[in-house]
Specification:
It is a single chain. Helices cover about 20% and strands about 20% of the residues. The chain is of the alpha+beta class. It folds into three domains: about 120 residues, no CATH class; about 120 residues, Orthogonal Bundle (Cytochrome Bc1 Complex, Chain D, domain 2), CATH 1.10.760.10; about 190 residues, Jelly Rolls. A hairpin with a 2-residue loop joins strand 5 and strand 6. The longest helix is centred in the first third of the chain and has 14 residues. The protein is elongated, with a radius of gyration of 28 Å. The two termini are about 35 Å apart. Bound molecules: heme C. Heme C binds next to helix 4 and helix 6. The site of heme C has 24 residues, from helix 4 and helix 6.
């Protein structure tokens, strides 16, 4: 990635790649803001930012004098009293010098130093979050401000009327338009507080096969970036900038663009799956792609009495499907599956006055291989009932399987929390997982052809989200 790429205004189109399920489609206008992106793609190279309303650095003379005292006490032992640092044989005239040996403190004066920071805000953040190395982030706001004022003064920037303040204005006080943001020092093993954690981070975002995988959904990725990056200025970007960066990461990881922008809607993002090769079955907004059979002892209309609409049984609530519990029935994706990996998340709600998870009898399940709709149909049912999760129900007496109840108890999360389900069907065998733990392995069952997968309503409420499938 080059500086030109980063500083360019990049128009990206992103989609959640399931237009056939009516998924929201995102379009992204990216104004690539500097080093965060550069770091994200692994190139800690020269980068720059777009500034619209830049101003000159400004600090108070006495503030800088106070900063000199702070410097002597907390910084000079490494960077030396003359600010020249202790990198022995560096060519300090170069803007790309690296003071390679761990522990070597670089000079804090000179063109090469100033070139490393786009704005006073960047310099301030660097000091605030990473210095002094022997007691990181231990200085008060006042001391950090005054020591930065001192560094500005020592680098020939004249004092002004006003003191430097910890405010957004610092970010528009430009020091160097082609700054590398001091990132040279963050390379390699000394990188204890770098920006993105380099290749490992990106590699998992790009979807290494096998479990565990790090980002289920765009929401997980967005939350991680928003709450931990940039590491030297956590949560320091605007919501729009975070959205743009996440959109950019999606694009860089091969997800195709679409028509709508990625919006700050965490519930929608929760349903944007990132698993490689998986098709999203629920779009977070409506029931596109789903069929319904609702009504006790009912085949669907026209021959039966069953309702083929969501009725009062299924609702969409805050980006989740809410199974209200009655009337009985199920909803199913409008496709048949035989060999597949199904993943989803579910949540039970506690009821008022509930004292223990054992007192909740919410009952649902995943009805596999349905070929003739009915309530209830002939099916192999992976149990979803509270306290029996991922065991076998309907069809169990015709199957051979192992069920690890102790593993189920260890793996389950308390009522009120989201649990992850994975069901793998392969050539007549079946595996069920709860929060990544194998619970049931079916070595033999009587079903031999592809069928519908029913999301069962026997009682509620149950919430579902992030439902996705990979069919072979
Ligand atoms: C224990 C030694 C030590 C102390 C004390 C220390 N530093 Fe550093 N400083 C370093 C080292 C080593 C680096 C380079 C490696 C790194 O980034 O951590 C560095 C890097 C820096 C950088 C980035 C320079 C560049 O060109 O990227 C700045 C700015 C800085 N220090 C300022 C300060 C200030 C201000 C203080 C006092 C509040 C301070 N340091 C205290 C060791 C120290």
């Amino acid at each position: 990635m080059t500086a030109a790429t980063v500083t360019a205004v990049i128009i990206l189109k992103l989609t959640d790649y399931l237009e056939d399920a009516g998924g929201p489609v995102m379009r992204r206008l990216i104004i690539a803001t500097a080093f965060v992106l550069a770091a994200a793609v692994g190139g800690y190279t020269q980068t720059g930012r777009l500034a619209t309303n830049s101003s000159s650095p400004s600090y108070g003379k006495e503030q800088a004098d106070r900063g000199k005292v702070v410097y002597s006490r907390y910084c000079s032992k490494c960077h030396l009293e003359n600010l020249k640092g202790n990198c022995p044989s560096e060519d300090l005239s170069s803007t790309s010098y690296i003071c390679a040996a761990p522990g070597n403190a670089p000079p804090l004066t000179g063109a090469s130093f100033m070139h490393r920071f786009y704005s006073v805000g960047d310099l301030y953040s660097r000091v605030k979050w990473t210095m002094p190395v022997d007691k990181v982030a231990s200085l008060s706001v006042e001391d950090n401000l005054s020591v930065v004022a001192y560094l500005l003064q020592a680098n020939g920037i004249p004092a002004g009327q006003e003191d430097l303040k910890a405010a957004a204005a610092m970010k528009t006080m430009v020091l160097s338009r082609d700054a590398s943001a001091g990132l040279g020092w963050h390379r390699g093993p000394v990188n204890s507080y770098g920006l993105f954690v380099g290749d490992a981070w990106l590699a998992s975002a790009s979807g290494i096969p096998g479990r565990p995988q790090r980002w289920d959904t765009v929401a997980d990725l967005y939350n991680k970036v928003r709450t931990t990056q940039p590491a030297y200025d956590v949560a320091g970007l605007s919501t729009q900038e975070y959205l743009d960066i996440v959109a950019y990461l999606l694009k860089q990881n091969g997800l195709p663009a679409g028509k709508e922008e990625l919006k700050n809607d965490i519930n929608l993002m929760r349903n944007m799956t990132l698993d490689k090769g998986f098709e999203r079955l629920f779009n977070g907004k409506d029931f596109t792609g789903w069929g319904f059979v609702v009504g006790p002892n009912c085949k669907p209309r026209p021959e039966g009495c069953g309702d083929t609409t969501p009725g009062t049984t299924f609702k969409i609530e805050e980006g989740t499907i809410l199974n209200t519990g009655s009337p009985h029935g199920y909803m199913y994706p409008l496709k048949k599956f035989w060999n597949f990996t199904l993943r989803l998340q579910y949540r039970f709600d506690p009821y008022p006055g509930m004292e223990s998870d054992d007192d909740l009898f919410t009952n649902t399940g995943y009805l596999l291989f349905i070929t003739r709709h009915d309530v209830w149909p002939r099916t192999l049912e992976v149990q979803g009932k509270n306290d029996f999760e991922m065991s076998l129900a309907m069809g169990a007496n015709e199957s051979t399987f192992t069920f690890d109840d102790a593993a189920r108890i260890r793996a389950r999360k308390p009522v009120g929390q989201w649990n992850s389900v994975e069901i793998v069907s392969k050539d007549g065998q079946l595996w069920t997982y709860l929060n990544g733990t194998l619970i049931t392995h079916v070595t033999k069952h009587p079903f031999t052809e592809a069928g519908y997968i029913g999301f069962q309503v026997e009682s509620g409420p149950v919430h579902w989200r992030n439902i996705r499938i990979k069919a072979d």
